[in-house]
Amino acid sequence: MIAIEKAFLEKILSKLFKPISHIYLLFAISLGWVLFRAESLGYALKYIMVMLNINSSAFVDNASMAYLNDKGYLIIIGIILSTPLLKILSKKIKNKKIIENIFAYLLQGVCITVLLFIITIQLVNSTYNPFLYFRF
Fold first, then answer.
1. Can you give the pLDDT at residue 120?
2. Counting C-beta atoms within 10 Å of the first and last residue's C-beta, which end of the chain has fewer, N or C?
3. What is the Cα–Cα distance from 113 to 116, expressed in whole angstroms?
């Protein structure tokens, strides 16, 4: 994928609007992970077809609605954290010196601890979550 990008898409991607190139990047990473995780090329192609809603009768079914109800907040958090919003906010806070350094470090520690607990709860609640690299 990197070779194709360097050979054909580099000039096009450099001229694109930044959010469009960011969406392309996320899409390329998703495809790369599908190819990395799939047991065969046929399985990967079927998985990509499902991801892109090719040969499907309904755009949203009961399984996807159940997933969105259960894990929708993770998608929203992922979208927010994949943007430069936090970097922009931290620059504004540093420039205005709104928060003292000690308070910022304490807040960072609390946030990391809360994330640790949320991730631990998610892992405990999942029924089967094998570590990817044990398959090799």
1. 84
2. C
3. 5
- Round to whole Å and give the CA distance between 136 and 126: 22
Rg of the chain over all Cα atoms, to the nearest angstrom: 20
Could you tell me which residues come within 8 angstroms of residue 132 by beta carbon, excluding any fewer than 6 positions away?
A: 37
Which of the residues in the chain have pLDDT under 50?
none
Lookup: tokens for 116? 């640790």
Query: Is residue 44 a contact partner of residue 36, using CB atoms and an 8 Å limit?
Result: no
Half-sphere exposure at residue 107, Cβ-oriented, CA atoms within 13 angstroms: 7
Residues 6+ apart with CB under 8 A from 69: none
pTM: 0.48
Torsion sign across C-alpha atoms 3, 33, 73, 69:
positive
User: What distance in Å separates the CA atoms of residue 6 and residue 8, rounded to the nearest whole number?
Assistant: 6
Quick check: helix, strand or coil at residue 130? coil
